[in-house]
């Protein structure tokens, strides 16, 4: 119901904004940006909060941009809570920022509303679209039209405790069958588990599709498909049958990074964000990273990415594009990703910074070309909420996988039909 109201209201807003702007024309070419009475054009950039180190990096990038674009000033707004709700409300009210962050999982639904500016007409050859990792840029594209460009990303990689592996005399697994086997040798009762798991769709999506099934078909839940069930069953069995895998709450930790850092799991599958966390919180742990083990001979991982997008109702589109193209261009992206908090979505920048050959991050960069981006249609939020609600009961041994996911799928699709 909310979605219908949201789209309808945006339609009215778009008409109003169109009326205001109908008498204006804008050259998106190489013409210098006009200034009002000699004052620089002010562009608003909205995003969520980040660590002090990341905030400092962004401040530096924005300063560099303003130094090289004296006709443009950037007003940076941090939305600390309920980010998407606040952004949507402001867009509806005609007070949306000129440029803002958009997570890939939210992109399809927002593109449908028409509030995002199509960007193809702004892109010139020197922007080098082919330099972006393909799965990442496709997450913000529809029918050949780009609506955003990714500012960075993380895939998932296999973190492993080098000392535990050496003590157990096992090698780093390259297949999922090997992971399950070495987990048995790495497990020590309930003190240490071979593998720390995240039983949720955002982490298990690529696993669910590894046998050829599809989690989403025609924008509806399809995870009760037998191929999906067959792919997920070994993941559950490692916890319930082998007892060589556990989730963080089983060992009194908040997430798998903490579980791994405390030595309660010999392996976890985590993202780039875990590296600075482990290095600062558990500096004594000796760990390595590898690509996620293959399933049925096929490589797979997840990718999580956020783009800069432009408000279609912005009255400063020319300046907004200058900002976006700098932030997602090679120069701005190099500065933004220079500390490794986020990986560069441009291949050339990853190579220049050495991340593709880095002992740790190299595995994450290697996964980008084949990663499954956490985004699939406008109904994915409904689909994954219902999946997670039932999958936890399976993981706890309270329900059979087929029964639980059948119920979850039916509930999700009923909710989708009622929208």
From TrEMBL:
GO terms for cellular component: ATP-binding cassette (ABC) transporter complex, substrate-binding subunit-containing
Cited SUPFAM superfamilies: Periplasmic binding protein-like II
Gene Ontology biological process terms in this record: maltodextrin transmembrane transport; maltose transport
Signal peptide: 1-22
Molecular-function GO terms, alphabetical: maltose binding
InterPro entries in UniProt: SBP
Cytoplasm in keyword set: no
Pfam families registered for this protein in UniProt: SBP_bac_1
Domain of life: Bacteria
Keywords linked to the UniProt accession: Signal, Transport
Family from the record: Belongs to the bacterial solute-binding protein 1 family.
Protein name: ABC transporter substrate-binding protein
Organism: Psychrobacillus glaciei
């Amino acid at each position: 119901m909310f979605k219908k109201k949201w789209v309808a209201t945006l339609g009215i807003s778009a008409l109003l904004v169109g009326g205001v702007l109908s008498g204006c024309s804008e050259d998106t070419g190489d013409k210098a940006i006009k200034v009002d009475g000699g004052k620089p054009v002010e562009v608003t950039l909205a995003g969520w909060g980040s660590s002090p180190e990341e905030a400092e990096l962004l401040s530096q990038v924005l300063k560099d941009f303003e130094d090289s674009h004296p006709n443009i000033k950037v007003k940076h707004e941090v939305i600390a809570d309920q980010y998407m709700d606040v952004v949507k409300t402001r867009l509806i009210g005609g007070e949306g920022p000129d440029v803002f962050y958009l997570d890939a999982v939210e992109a399809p639904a927002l593109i449908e509303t028409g509030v995002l500016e199509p960007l193809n007409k702004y892109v010139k050859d020197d922007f080098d679209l082919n330099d972006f990792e393909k799965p990442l840029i496709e997450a913000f594209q529809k029918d050949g039209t780009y609506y955003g460009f990714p500012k960075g990303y993380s895939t998932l990689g296999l973190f492993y405790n080098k000392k535990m592996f050496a003590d157990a005399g096992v090698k780093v697994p390259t297949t999922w069958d090997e992971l399950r086997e070495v987990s048995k040798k790495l497990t020590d009762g309930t003190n240490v588990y071979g593998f720390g798991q995240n039983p949720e769709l955002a982490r298990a999506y690529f696993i669910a599709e590894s046998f050829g099934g599809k989690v989403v078909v025609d924008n509806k839940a399809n995870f009760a498909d037998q191929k999906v069930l067959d792919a997920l069953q070994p993941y559950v069995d490692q916890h319930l049958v082998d007892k060589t895998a556990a989730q963080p709450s089983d060992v009194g930790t908040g997430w798998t990074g903490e579980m791994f850092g405390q030595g309660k799991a010999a392996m976890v599958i985590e993202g780039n964000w875990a590296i600075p966390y482990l290095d600062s919180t558990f500096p004594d742990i000796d760990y390595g990273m590898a690509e996620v083990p293959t399933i049925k001979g096929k490589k797979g991982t997840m990718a999580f990415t956020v783009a800069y997008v432009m408000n279609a109702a912005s009255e400063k589109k020319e300046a907004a594009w200058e900002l976006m193209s700098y932030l997602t261009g090679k120069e701005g992206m190099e500065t933004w990703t220079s500390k490794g908090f986020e990986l560069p979505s441009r291949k050339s920048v990853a190579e220049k910074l050495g991340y593709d050959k880095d002992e740790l991050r190299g595995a994450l960069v290697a996964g980008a070309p084949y990663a499954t981006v956490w985004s699939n249609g406008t109904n994915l939020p409904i689909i994954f909420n219902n999946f997670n609600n039932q999958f936890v009961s399976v993981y706890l041994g309270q329900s059979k996988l087929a029964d639980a996911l059948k119920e979850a799928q039916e509930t999700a699709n009923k909710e989708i039909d009622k929208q």
